[in-house]
Amino acid sequence: MRRRELIAAVAASAIPIAAWAQQPVPIRRVGVLMGFPEGDKLAQSYVAAMRQNLAGLGWLENRNILIVPRWGGGDPEKTRAFAKELAGMSPSVIVTSTNQATETMRQETQTIPIVFASLGDPVGSGLVESMNRPGGNVTGFPAFVETMGGKWLELMKEVEPRVTRIGFIHHPGVAPHRGLVRAAQAAAPRLKIDLVPLAVHNADEITVAITTFASGGYGGLVTGSHAVTYSNRDLLISLAAQHGLPSLFADPLFAESGALLSYGSDQMEMFLGAASYVDRILKGSKPAEMPVQLPTKFNFIINLKTAEAIGLTIPPVILARADRVIE
């Protein structure tokens, strides 16, 4: 081959390589379907922490990743519309929170990987086949285990020994809440507590349930985490205060907003864990083989302002056990 032809051949072969090198890095889309209202500052901090953790893992917004958040706020129709929208975008992975959002998203796609943070009983809810081997397109980080229902009653009894009646606010349509109520019912006789399950689906039913329960005499309230309870947080807290009922919720946001007590898993830990699973999926891991991770960190918060308002003195030994005391 003559010299001129050799140079031309080399130059021609180099063009595809140079062109390939100049191609922009593909941006991976990550959908997020939150069961919280969009204005919920704590929930926004969870998403922000997830973004930050992903950035630390090399996934930079608008460079190689695009995060698309949607906020269902406990509204079934809105959640369904957002789930359909996100599935239609064909993202690489979708992060969800709450059973409602996760189950709705699962109905829209059985192929796009879904990583949940903050829900209950993924096996009983039919989201995964088992904790160790989820088996489908869903895995993640649940907020609580069924036995938490009994733990909540124990804490309420320790904080207020005079309580002999406890109303358990729950959504009867979700498996995790049915499990929590069963655990609470099993613990109630030992604690000499009359447990009153209060099934609710919306704000009106919450008002009726608490008002009716309060008319039966002094008692306490325990509330399971759900999109309906999150979206009606202010209503639940105000009704408990109105009727002078000591109240316990799973999420710290409730105690920070005026409930007497909160005891539950660290939500931030779950969203940071979700970011690590997103990273693994974007790098090729399959959710079917990624075990569901149970919570390892729990927070106990006491609101002394609320205790004073309802005339309750918290024993010093209980205050010493709290992770945080709001004064």
Task: Provide keyphrases for this structure.
327 residues, alpha/beta, Rossmann fold, 2 domains, seven-stranded mixed β-sheet, five-stranded parallel β-sheet, 13 helices, 12 strands, 45% helix
Q: Helical stretch count?
A: 13
CATH superfamily of the largest domain: Response regulator
> What CATH first level of the largest domain would be assigned?
Alpha Beta
What structural category arises from helix and sheet content? alpha/beta
Cα gyration radius (Å): 24 Å
Oligomer: single chain
CATH topology of the largest domain: Rossmann fold
Written account of the structure:
- The protein is an alpha/beta fold and 327 residues long.
- It folds into two domains: 28-144 and 266-297, Rossmann fold (3-Layer(aba) Sandwich); 148-265 and 299-326, Response regulator (Rossmann fold, 3-Layer(aba) Sandwich).
- Helix content is 45%, strand content 18%.
- It contains 13 helices and twelve strands.
- It has helices at residues 3-21, 41-56, 76-88, 99-108, 148-159, 175-191, 203-214, 227-231, 233-242, 252-257, 267-282, 304-309, 316-321; strands at 28-34, 65-71, 93-97, 114-117, 138-141, 165-170, 194-199, 220-223, 247-249, 261-265, 298-303, 324-326.
- The protein has a seven-stranded mixed β-sheet with strand order 7-6-8-9-10-11-12, with helices on both faces. Strands 2-1-3-4-5 form a five-stranded parallel β-sheet, sandwiched between helices.
- α6 (175-191) links the parallel β6 and β7.
- α2 (41-56) packs parallel to α11 and α5 packs across α6.
- The longest helix is centred in the N-terminal third of the chain and has 19 residues, at 3-21.
- The protein starts with a helix and ends with a strand.
- 45% of the residues are buried.
- Mean pLDDT is 90; it is low at 6-15.
